[in-house]
Write a structure and sequence with these properties.
Chain lengths: 271, 308
């Protein structure tokens, strides 16, 4: 049964309601990763609540990207476990979409915007699956959602940083996942792109998806996210932004390196 | 000219063309992964493997040659990894150290051993012996359908043909994972593509091409064909699919033109003797790359921001 058939069947009420999933979209326990002698992340426990937007916040070198990569199995953890919707990642890989850092790839790669978005359909197409007009339509619809439809046939090297980021987001949308993991989606993008991305992420949450972002801009955490995970190699705190994103927790996360004036500017609730 | 051409030129041109295509295909991906030096390394380390295989078996039959070359390539990969980790040296330098020392070792071995009875010397290692791969049994074009004549084809031809077809089929079948993991390895892993296996597979395909091409055409063509046609193709187009097609066109052009220029070029300029076909093929591929640098439509790939 294809995805569209399922959707039609669901609309006609022919599908039984799925039993309520009680397992959280993402739970990590004791996750430790080391590249050399010092651990990059150490024994992190965290849970991303369903239908929420969680920011992973911490200083440079705190292991934010490493945490995402360990969750995705891109780097091998030394110890600890990851469960996605209560199952090992390998069993639910199709429900997870990943947006890597924009700077992690060579944008001079010879390919077009639409081809990058079509990569999001790899799991559906497989090695030799025939690519149909329907697949291209899906990819164009995803570009439409990030406001990049007219760039479909453009060479990716011609895009601005913000446009590149939106193409990456469109590729993740094409995966039609339930859990979206994004690595610094707002880094170095223009204001229009930032607005486009946050709108898409909020619409994902409204569609009962779960979004987890590595995020570097402390000023926007309160506006954009409902949950926050503060880490600096170890977990400092996690929970709802309103109660967890406090001046005190930030000082602990940044080890006193954050100027008081900077924290004052955030106008946080007293911790 | 039919019979002379079929006897003397057809097989060398075919072998040169197939060898060039077999190297150019994986070369496209090696270049995009910034691993072009691997092709260079493999074509060098093959030499000691072949010499050792000859010393052990006393023949230049293809199976022991392939095994020896494969073994040497494996040792080289392990050595490169070991030097990288133990010596904390950047990968390019580790590769450079390993392949030059192994090639030098191969040359020393070659000089010390009695290989006078067979086609195995330093010159062949570099240049191959393309011109001598002639088809004695052929009379004219009709030999192409004569089973007796076909059975007497130089064994290098079916060998490189099999490898070339195999690499082409593998490239086609694994196109999507190859492309995705070359562009964005992290994303590739997140959708379940076994990126390590893909990388190793690519290096093995490159090694197979290098080994099969090596004894027919020598290491100069191998090195040139891994890099020049894909690099020139890169300047012609902005799509990987078209880039691979262009690289094959350039590989064929280099092989055919190179062979013809080597055989007849010196005569046109009043010289007496033909020059090395392998050297000329490599030179032509370099000239094609030079022309692509000057006139290729995509030579200025500057990221232009349009709108926002």
């Amino acid at each position: 049964m294809t995805r569209s058939q399922v959707k039609v069947a669901a609309r006609d009420g022919k599908l039984l309601q799925q039993p309520q999933v009680v397992d959280s979209p993402l739970a990590v326990r004791g996750l430790t990763v080391s590249y050399g002698e010092k651990p990059a992340i150490f024994s992190i426990d965290a849970v991303a609540p369903a239908e929420s937007m969680t920011a992973i916040v911490g200083p440079n070198g705190a292991g934010k990207s490493t945490l995402l990569k360990a969750v995705l199995g891109i780097v091998k953890p030394l110890s600890g476990s990851v469960s996605v919707y209560g199952q090992p990642l390998a069993d639910v890989q199709a429900r997870v979409a990943y947006v890597p850092q924009r700077a992690s790839v060579d944008w001079d790669f010879p390919t077009r915007v639409i081809d990058v978005v079509l990569m999001g359909l790899y799991r559906e197409l497989g090695l030799l699956g025939w690519m149909t007009g329907q697949h291209r339509k899906t990819a164009r619809a995803c570009l439409e959602r990030v406001g990049m439809a007219e760039f479909a046939d453009r060479q990716i090297g011609q895009l601005s940083g913000g446009q590149q980021q939106r193409v990456f987001l469109a590729r993740a949308l094409a995966q039609d996942a339930d859990l979206y993991l994004l690595d610094e989606p707002f880094a170095g993008v223009d204001a229009a792109t930032e607005k486009a991305i946050i709108d898409v992420l909020k619409s994902l949450r409204a569609d009962k998806k779960t979004v987890v972002c590595v995020h570097h801009d402390l000023a926007t955490v309160t506006d954009y996210f409902d949950h926050v995970l503060l880490i600096n190699v170890r977990k400092i705190a996690d929970g709802p932004v309103a109660t967890t994103f406090t001046a005190e927790n930030l000082q602990r996360t940044y080890g006193g390196r954050l100027a008081t004036t900077h924290i004052d500017e955030l106008r946080l609730p007293a911790g | 000219m039919g019979s002379e051409f079929v006897q003397l030129s057809l097989t060398p041109i075919l072998i040169g063309t197939l060898a060039s295509m077999a190297c150019a295909l994986p070369g496209n991906f090696l270049i995009l992964r910034r691993q072009a030096l691997i092709g260079d390394a493999i074509s060098h380390v093959v030499l000691p493997g072949i010499v050792v295989a000859f010393l052990l078996t006393g023949t230049v039959a293809s199976i022991p040659m392939m095994l020896g070359a494969g073994g040497a390539a494996l040792i080289a990969v392990l050595l490169i990894e070991a030097i990288k980790r133990l010596g904390r040296i950047e990968p390019g330098a580790a590769m450079g150290v390993v392949f030059t020392s192994m090639f030098a070792g191969g040359v020393l071995l070659l000089e010390q051993s009695d290989t006078s009875s067979v086609h195995l010397d330093v010159e062949h290692a570099l240049m191959g012996n393309l011109e001598s791969l002639i088809w004695f049994a052929a009379d004219d074009w009709s030999s192409l359908v004569d089973p007796v004549a076909l059975a007497a084809l130089p064994p290098e031809l079916p060998r490189i043909a099999v490898v070339c077809v195999l690499i082409a089929v593998l490239t086609f079948v694994f196109w999507r994972p190859l492309k995705i993991s070359t562009f964005d390895e992290g994303f590739a892993r997140s959708v379940g593509i076994p990126t390590t296996a893909i990388s190793i597979g690519l290096v093995i395909a490159a090694a197979a091409a290098a080994v099969a091409a090596f004894d027919a055409v020598g290491s100069i063509i191998v090195i040139a064909m891994f890099i020049c046609p894909p690099a020139a193709a890169r300047l012609m187009t902005r799509q990987l699919e078209l880039q691979v097609a262009w690289s094959l066109v350039f590989a064929v052009l280099s092989a055919v033109l190179g062979y013809v220029f080597a055989g007849y070029g010196p005569l046109w300029f009043g010289g007496d003797n033909a020059v090395s076909a392998a050297g000329m093929i490599a030179t032509v591929s370099g000239v094609i790359l030079g022309l692509a640098c000057l006139f290729g439509p995509q030579r200025k790939r500057i990221g232009v921001a349009i709108g926002a």
